[in-house]
Amino acid sequence: MDATQMTDDVGGSPARPTRRERARAATIDEIKETALRIMHEQGRTDLKFSEIAREMGMTAPALYRYFNDRDELLTAMIVDAYDDLGNKVAQAREAVDPDDLPGRFYAVAAAYRAWANREPERFALIFGLPLPGYVAPEEGPTTEAAQRAMMQLKAMFLDAGQRGELRSPMITHVDKALHKPAKDEDEVMTPAGAGPLPPEFFQACLTSWSMLHGFISLETYGHFGFIGPEGSDALFNTVVQLTALTSGYPWPADGDS
Amino acid sequence: MDATQMTDDVGGSPARPTRRERARAATIDEIKETALRIMHEQGRTDLKFSEIAREMGMTAPALYRYFNDRDELLTAMIVDAYDDLGNKVAQAREAVDPDDLPGRFYAVAAAYRAWANREPERFALIFGLPLPGYVAPEEGPTTEAAQRAMMQLKAMFLDAGQRGELRSPMITHVDKALHKPAKDEDEVMTPAGAGPLPPEFFQACLTSWSMLHGFISLETYGHFGFIGPEGSDALFNTVVQLTALTSGYPWPADGDS
DNA sequence: GCGAATAGTAATGATGCATAACCAACGTGA
DNA sequence: TCACGTTGGTTATGCATCATTACTATTCGC
User: Fold this and answer.
1) B interface mutation test: which of A154, A235, A238 has the most B CBs within 10 A?
2) How large a percentage of chain B has pLDDT more than 70?
3) Contacts of A173 in chain B (CB under 8 A)
4) CA-to-CA distance for B85 and B209, rounded, in angstroms?
5) What is the span of the domain harbouring residue B11?
6) pLDDT of A109-122, one tens digit each?
7) Is A257 within the bounds of a domain?
């Protein structure tokens, strides 16, 4: 029934994706790539079936074979965006010596920033005002994808915690409401084999996200244009530093980068 | 020529706005109010002349008498949004005892937050991805309005500085690029009769903005839904506290609110 | 009151989404 | 190898919306 789910259908033959399935998957990828390209070219986050089809040398109704409606395609685009962001961040983190915790923290922040600056439309797609008609499917794939991406930050704190490198976060109160995230979500967000993250560091995780996200968001949309690129870089370094220091994450005594 | 500027036109008859001018100004206000209402009702930041007109009991082409094109109306909406935000923040600040600096800081942050939560569309309009076709007029009114709003934060630091209440911000490097914002902008952003803000506090001003903005942006777009309203409040308090502490702004030793 | 500027309407053309009906191609099984 | 069913695609249709042109009515100011 659901066209988009036929590709990764379970039960069938996991070893051998049939020829048709491969062709279908390729077309789906091409649709998404085309949609993404149009988003970049035009600086918008909404999509027009007719335009995508035209760009692909197809006709609009054909796309309905692959996505039942606009929202389904949008959902796929959002999930892809979250996953791409998460992958880029994870990749950046793992490219740094595991013992260099500050380096990993900086790499994660820098990857987040670079991704946003490189793809403002995708950034807006997942972190901006939801598109007019769009309603995210309840408890659906977008939420899960968001949690996967968010987990990258949490994993970093967990890792530092397991190495006993976390200092106490710079906060006076740890609020009860933040002690326990919903259980099922916690399962998703906690990497296998890791103990639970102490509540104060979960809170630190969220404040870190906020701080980094604020700079990145303002920069991405051009609100720091008046301080120039060098100013932006300097400000970013400062924000990263403050984020690490306040969250209890290891940071060199006078390190600037 | 420029329809939107006829209302606050200088030079003309300052004492006596003619009947036509008054009617015209009223209509312009109604257009903007209607546009804003539609934005709220539909959760979108773009505008459709036809819809605005219909809502006003008019027809679309009539609006072109007041705004030459969509961009002109958008510019007016953006300026109004910045001004409203700035006013609300200033208002909140001035409602607190001038000697209670932490209270003022919190009030400003809370006003920023409340404004964003109350008007997500306006928030997106000025802090989100620019609308597809729209190009902000160079050196135009939007930039000035943005600076006026931003000045509220700067003024708060200036005031604390004049009272000798500022501690050193928690940063190791003050970057040259941030030392001198462009001169003309500095004129706009510095309230009359105040000495210049030392560079490290200008930097602190920007980091404060980033930190607060990050939380507010994520919360406004529903990314903190999973921690619930109490969790959001707690997180906000923490972020405000961290912002004040890291920026050198006065904050009680163990104050939570 | 008269004329010009201003406000408003009706008609036009273009575009987009979505669906239905129809056609082509491919691959599997007899 | 040939026919049939599944899948992919196009043309045709209905509906809705928006910006603009050309035209009409109103209203102010002298």
Assistant:
1) A238
2) 82
3) 234, 237-238, 256
4) 14
5) 1-68
6) 999 999 999 999 99
7) no
